[in-house]
Amino acid sequence: MDLSDATWTDVRDVDTDLAVVPVGSTEQHGPHAPLGTDVIGAEAVTDAAVDRTDREVVRAPAIPIGIAEEHRQFPGTMWVSEDTFRSYVREAVESLAHHGFERVVLVNGHGGNVDALREVGGNLTRSGAAYAVPFTWFEAVGEHSADMGHGGPLETALLRHVDPELIREDRIEAAQEGRADGWGEWTSHTNLAYDAAEFTDNGVVGDPGNGDERRGEELLELAADALVRLLETIVERDVSRPERR
Amino acid sequence: MDLSDATWTDVRDVDTDLAVVPVGSTEQHGPHAPLGTDVIGAEAVTDAAVDRTDREVVRAPAIPIGIAEEHRQFPGTMWVSEDTFRSYVREAVESLAHHGFERVVLVNGHGGNVDALREVGGNLTRSGAAYAVPFTWFEAVGEHSADMGHGGPLETALLRHVDPELIREDRIEAAQEGRADGWGEWTSHTNLAYDAAEFTDNGVVGDPGNGDERRGEELLELAADALVRLLETIVERDVSRPERR
Amino acid sequence: MDLSDATWTDVRDVDTDLAVVPVGSTEQHGPHAPLGTDVIGAEAVTDAAVDRTDREVVRAPAIPIGIAEEHRQFPGTMWVSEDTFRSYVREAVESLAHHGFERVVLVNGHGGNVDALREVGGNLTRSGAAYAVPFTWFEAVGEHSADMGHGGPLETALLRHVDPELIREDRIEAAQEGRADGWGEWTSHTNLAYDAAEFTDNGVVGDPGNGDERRGEELLELAADALVRLLETIVERDVSRPERR
Amino acid sequence: MDLSDATWTDVRDVDTDLAVVPVGSTEQHGPHAPLGTDVIGAEAVTDAAVDRTDREVVRAPAIPIGIAEEHRQFPGTMWVSEDTFRSYVREAVESLAHHGFERVVLVNGHGGNVDALREVGGNLTRSGAAYAVPFTWFEAVGEHSADMGHGGPLETALLRHVDPELIREDRIEAAQEGRADGWGEWTSHTNLAYDAAEFTDNGVVGDPGNGDERRGEELLELAADALVRLLETIVERDVSRPERR
Amino acid sequence: MDLSDATWTDVRDVDTDLAVVPVGSTEQHGPHAPLGTDVIGAEAVTDAAVDRTDREVVRAPAIPIGIAEEHRQFPGTMWVSEDTFRSYVREAVESLAHHGFERVVLVNGHGGNVDALREVGGNLTRSGAAYAVPFTWFEAVGEHSADMGHGGPLETALLRHVDPELIREDRIEAAQEGRADGWGEWTSHTNLAYDAAEFTDNGVVGDPGNGDERRGEELLELAADALVRLLETIVERDVSRPERR
Amino acid sequence: MDLSDATWTDVRDVDTDLAVVPVGSTEQHGPHAPLGTDVIGAEAVTDAAVDRTDREVVRAPAIPIGIAEEHRQFPGTMWVSEDTFRSYVREAVESLAHHGFERVVLVNGHGGNVDALREVGGNLTRSGAAYAVPFTWFEAVGEHSADMGHGGPLETALLRHVDPELIREDRIEAAQEGRADGWGEWTSHTNLAYDAAEFTDNGVVGDPGNGDERRGEELLELAADALVRLLETIVERDVSRPERR
């Protein structure tokens, strides 16, 4: 059930404690992919999973602005501070839990949100407000996950499948030329860079040429299946906190 | 320019300091109108105005969850605290201003957000971070504004025009039966109620029967024209702060 | 019972759950009216109402500094941030509620405090700490309310009645010359101004010549009567929160 | 110059950078002394000093509610949290400094405020916002200071001089009977008590019989003289911060 | 039981509700004494007391960085804000109380921490989270306490006894030459100074020549004995909060 | 240079902008390893690296209490909230930067601190206060890193080398029996567990039998060498922020 389209009487009549909240970011994804890439990805995976599962799941509107100051050198990137993002997500989930939707998956499309969502999930869960876990789609696509960059093969492929007009095919070559091969600058397993502009000229990491529409279709299937499995597992899980030892 | 669809290079090449941020709420709007009503309204007005103006305007993604705890007795209503909402909006605007979009209209579709947006606009403006003002569409539709309720004639009309399938026509009668005529419970010009459920049985205020599609079309035109005038005025305005007296 | 003058044993022996807290501001009111105008007004109305009602009411000391940064260009104006003001008022009310004074009217004399007091009242009420509502005296004086400005006819009249020496009669003409006719600068129902100095030269809005002592007397009566009605209504009101729908 | 009574044009024309802010508390002072004792004391000392000095001094309105949770077992006691109190005082002083009143004495009448005011003064001073120091009147009355209790000889004497009707002479005996001799319960130079009710039955510490009106007059003179000396010293002091060593 | 060296199974098997937390500061102590002086002192007194008492006491790790901005002109001084320090100590104690160690002494070695620790203790105690009191060793060494300075006779003596290599004996003369005799600059019982560098050239207050190793031994004995008495008293104390009057 | 042992004059005379701050946690590490394991590890690696490098490095005291609520079911575990931990570390680093030590490595011994330290480093770096990066020793020991558990082979080995008495050899068998093989409970690449007690009976993850003293020696060497390389890299790195694109 899509919360935005439903009425409160529809929600009243639904029988589930399961909800999903897509979480994205509005930030640069190279010269060829839109600033909304991470929102689009999170929503696409969410909707595909909700379609596939037999479970009743309440689907909240997507949170469109996340933790993305690392892209601030690239025009159009929006962000909020980590504290504000955590509060916004936590309180949004608490309002869902207020209505009994107490098992929540935060379906995430942006690497910069990962740590914050895990922290939010832990605090919600330990306080007893809700049981909430983040699911980041590109971590759950099998061997493809190793190819994750930024505006790279995975995200470009997914968009080519989901909303192909948003990929500027005539700029793929430019995207490839200014790209970095990997995320960050590493010494002794420490990333020395804090801003993407320290290691990528045009904001791209990974080769967007390696992600055609069929790969996008496969990614969406893999991610949606993984999310369905997660929902199935969560709905059965004992989420009470362990006893003192 | 829709920020979500644009690339950072598109944004880099745009020549304007004007931006609009639709701000809504996901909350009950009676048995006949969707929880997303306020987001849909804010986006519809924003997009109509951006279409009509000759000015280049950057259009941010809509903020979907606002200040709506007053509707918490109605299932599906989402909300965040006033503090968190203010921080989220303020920092989102600051990130726009970081890229030079320093004149910002917060296009609002929810009464509960009004005070907070005014506070955010004042703090952004006085601090010098950006010049930002809230525009609440249903306050700017001439004599219609006097009819504003909640899930009432104006919002129902607007949705009938913008996305008619979202209005459950078969529940209009029920919506009318459980509605309140006015917002709040007043004594000595003081509203004694804090929760909508104190004065409306089904969340509706005003008669949704009084808002057909043609009224919705007129509302959209009036609101969009008002927003265009506001943008025109703001772009010319001297927004520097006054001198000490 | 005036809390400042009472002893704790006096307070222990009182039998009521009703309290009033005057809330003002120390800010410019033109060349003719004192910075303390809003405190004086809030206290005068509070005391007149406490005198008139048969109910036992605990009267707290006035909070003298409010939300007034919009007047910062005028020397002597004091203010605190919205967050700090809200915390100060909320916690002060919580301390009253700790002693059983759980129905509280915040008697307000300053327009800039209105939104914040409503927010505080809502949070106190929803959390169950206390039932608290703001009452802003100049909104409750019948048709006079339409004349409200700033250092204008209403406030000047009230002070002429309450403490006439504080009005500098020899500066009324100067006050009239530099005044604005209305509050703010409006386009499309949006106030573009955030600082009073954007639209008034000397801080005055409205004509202080239109407020003689007799009008002040009438204003005080009207406001005090309205407040008495509010107290009577509140004391009988069921302030428990509504059930989930 | 009393800020509350002055107009902004009066304040504009004053030539000083010196301000005083009385700070009190509304809290129990035994069965014989009013809850407002600490505000009355702070204001009396402030006004006596302003009268005696030749310096132009801006006198802010008194802050009436302080840090007094330690008296919460006694009805009528009001308080705010330490954090809120510090913010309220700090921001109030910052608003004075905004107009050039950058040397500020916080004239304090309540022991529970002492630590917080010192912290606020330090933060204001180190940040460069203002130079501010707390002055607690009963610490500056020579050998009398050793007699300071709570609702005891000093405060009772001061009120007998300043506003004798507020002392309930017919309850002095009761006040004496339930009093404690000293503040706190001490072991190894550590006060084990956090609430006054742990060591005083009726909230009184020290013998209010030992404070007649003449002692009150002397206390006021001593405190006012001390405050005048402090103002004289501050106005000449180099308040710039020291160099790095 | 030293918590850092114990295993969780050891802690599980201990039968006490008593804990001690050494709290220090890393800050200048003149040219002759180390920046760690306050941590070393707090730990030495803590360990001596734990050794002497028959009670089982859980000994937490020392908190090494405190409130010391007043020494910021002297290189190497570390500090955090008062708010952060209070939160860190409070939450650390709450975690001890979570395991049943609900009577806690904060053994303090730094004057700048005193007010904050008292505030933390009060908030923990009133909220019911734990009963916690600060103990500052140099306030509890009898007549020696009058000699307390900064890097002066007491601290220098204690270190000469506890860890003599840390005192640079060849710089004692220099320490004496640049020292101040007393802490602060006082007018009307108000300290006008906020930074130590306002009144001491080299950071020293008091004569470090007056503190030999034997005095240090005596100080440690006195402080440890006082702390043992405090622990004995606390373990027997009724720490429930008083009834409403 | 160890800051705790140095005097401020020593620090003044040092010529470097490089500092290291060991960061640990006081938390359960199974029945065989001490609660202080993470502090000991962080300090050992820090000190070994400082010994090995030719660079002058300022070594701050270790921060002993971190983010460890996930171990709260095991007695003795201490923790603070994520917010408080971040503030404490950030402000401590800012105080170092105040003295010119503006390139800082946070040498971390606890997995639960990793995300928070990265966030703190980013905020310090982007604000310009300091350039700070976290280094977590067990991520930088080559192929050994894959064996990292909790109280498992790596930490047990390191302690056997660094402070062998702290490992209870007679409890290794018990540690092995109650241990988990891996950290967390995973579905679709999402860890469903928030508390360690959800997946380990005795708090151990990994086999502590696989970590003898020689392995500990090698780990210390590998980690120290990695940290030295990091320090060398950082000291040469251009840490200015990139230009706007």
What does this structure look like?
- The structure is a homohexamer of 245-residue chains.
- Chain A has a single domain, classed as Creatininase (Rossmann fold, 3-Layer(aba) Sandwich), CATH 3.40.50.10310.
- Chain A is of the alpha/beta class.
- In chain A, the strands form 2 sheets. In chain A, strands 2-1-3-4 form a 4-stranded parallel beta sheet, sandwiched between helices. A two-stranded antiparallel sheet of chain A has the order 5-6.
- Chain A has 7 helices and 6 strands.
- The longest helix of chain A has 24 residues.
- In chain A, 64% of the residues are buried.
- The model of chain A has no long low-confidence stretch (mean pLDDT 98).
- The radius of gyration of chain A is 18 Å and the shape is globular.
- Chains in contact: A-B, A-F, B-C, C-D, D-E, E-F.
- At the E-F interface, helix 1 and helix 3 of E face helix 1 and helix 3 of F.
